[in-house]
Amino acid sequence: MVPSRFFFAATLLLVSSLVIVSAIDYSQGSHPDINKSTARAKEKPLPIGVEGHILCKSGTSSPAVPIQGAVARITCLAVDESGYETAPFSFLSGETDENGYFFATLTPSDKLQLRQCKAFLKKSPLEYCQVPTDVNRGIGGALLTSYRLLNQKKIRLYWVGPFYYTSQSDGY
Questions:
Q1: Model pLDDT, residue 10
Q2: Which backbone phi and psi does 13 adopt, to 5 degrees?
Q3: Hey, where are the domains in the chain?
Q4: What's the mean pLDDT in 61-75?
Q5: DSSP string, 40-89
Q6: Mean pLDDT over residues 110-131, rounded?
Q7: Of 35, 46, 59, 68, which is the most exposed, with the fewest CB atoms less than 10 Å away?
Q8: Cβ(113)–Cβ(35) under 8 Å?
Q9: How many Cβ atoms sit within 10 Å of the Cβ of residue 123?
């Protein structure tokens, strides 16, 4: 009789633990699903912002300098409301300012759930510094994983880079 009560209590404890663990939301802040919904009523997904710097590094001893007029590309995978993966889509940042800073925004659709977004180098206006490097995944794509929530602006802000271009002869 005692072993069956013990077995019943242990089973009840295990089931309770599984229910509690399955209810925890791990999406806050660092999960690659960009607009994962919570258990609350479906809310409109927040716009996302992506910011970073694009620099030119010529030679091993020279300092990196900002590139004005460079552009980054952000590519995202998404799932539609039926659960089917959509074709990847891309959008471009605005041109970098005199400090090499870029910013791009995307307002997710209510019908699509963003699964994964990556930022890449797109173009450099400098003739002597047009070869992209994979420093900080500028060629392979920097995965957007960690963001800051800007409550006043109602946006999820991601940071990538800095990304670098170089000249062909550098091999940086």
A1: 43
A2: -65, -45
A3: 31-166
A4: 93
A5: SSPPPPPPEEEEEEEEE--SSSSPPEE-TT-EEEEEEEEEETTSPBPPPE
A6: 91
A7: 59
A8: yes
A9: 17
Over residues 128-138, the pLDDT tens digits come to: 999 999 999 99
Residues 100 and 138: beta-carbon distance below 8 Å = no
| CB-neighbour burial class of residue 66 (10 A; exposed 0-12, middle 13-18, buried 19+) | middle
Whole-angstrom Cα distance, residue 85 to residue 80? 6
134 closest CA partner among 162, 154, 112, 106: 162
Indicate the helix (H) or strand (E) that contains 13: helix 2-23
Residue corresponding to tokens 């997904």:
45
Question: At residue 124, what is the residue type?
Answer: S
Contact between 163 and 136 (Cβ < 8 Å): yes
Supply the pTM of this predicted model.
0.71
> Domain 31-166 falls in which CATH fold?
Immunoglobulin-like (2.60.40)
Facing residues of 158 across strands?
A: 50, 147
